Amino acid sequence: MLVHPDMLTALTPTSSVAPLPTVIPNPVITVEAGDVGRRTLWVVVVLMGLSSLAFYGMAFRVPVQKRLFHILTSFITTFAFLSYFAMATGDGVSYNTYTETIHHKKVPNTYQPYQREIYYARYIDWAITTPLLLLDLSLLAGLSGANILVAVVADVIMVLTGLFASFGSKSSQTWGWYAWACIAYLVVVYQLAFNGRTAVANKDSKTKAFYASIAGFTLILWTIYPIVWALSEGSHVINVNQEIIAYAVLDVLAKPVFGFWLLFTHDGMASTSPSLEGFWSQGFGSQGTLRVGDDDEA
Description:
It contains ten helices and three strands; from the N terminus they run αβααββααααααα. By secondary structure, it is mainly alpha-helical. The longest helix is centred in the middle third of the chain and has 30 residues, at 171-200. The protein has helices spanning 5-11, 35-59, 68-88, 120-141, 145-166, 171-200, 205-234, 240-268, 279-282, 294-297, and strands spanning 29-31, 94-102, 110-118. The chain has a single domain (29-268), classed as Rhodopsin 7-helix transmembrane proteins (Rhopdopsin 7-helix transmembrane proteins, Up-down Bundle).
């Protein structure tokens, strides 16, 4: 039996299902600092270094008994100098990987992975310098040791939870840690604004007015920090260059500007500034020294 070729074609099975489209994953986009951001870091390195030298020089102009604020303030800008030097040279930097969902109307959602630069050296700086700043303000106001301890611990918790939030890979992680950081910050505000004002009320009018001004200035700046964080590392609204510039302006105002204001005013109030005697200026007395060989003589 002969079969016509057209009949063979008709009898050949065919598929009516179109091949499924191949989904190609989106490449990872790296979000990092550009030339503007790197130059900004170097500018702050210079400013922090010069400020530190100036503060150490101012410390040598006053007696040892009156150098407490000078030393604390010098340490603040010194640690900031080291932190910015690390960031400017490429150290103290890591990357956080996160994914954004891109919604479509007629096709399935797609996902875009990102890697964003995180300057963890900045958090190390804040974990050291912000407690020193709090010590400056607390000692100026005359806060009790208990209140100072609470303020410093809350401040460290605020910085650490901010660091954890910056490395969160999920929205719940990021904003959960951020919420804890804000709660800790409110504790710091309470100590400075309420307990600090109560403590400084017992001092002279110049000290009260000065504390109100410099503490208010500091709290305003510190309130802007979490706003910048939310716009940068939190919601990724601003890029890394803008983040660096925003933090640089805040750090310069909160450290060198704060320091010069504090020390110039403090030196101008020499008659009412605290004077530390004893171990601070003279070390252990003869009764407190350890004498090698005393037991053998006995």
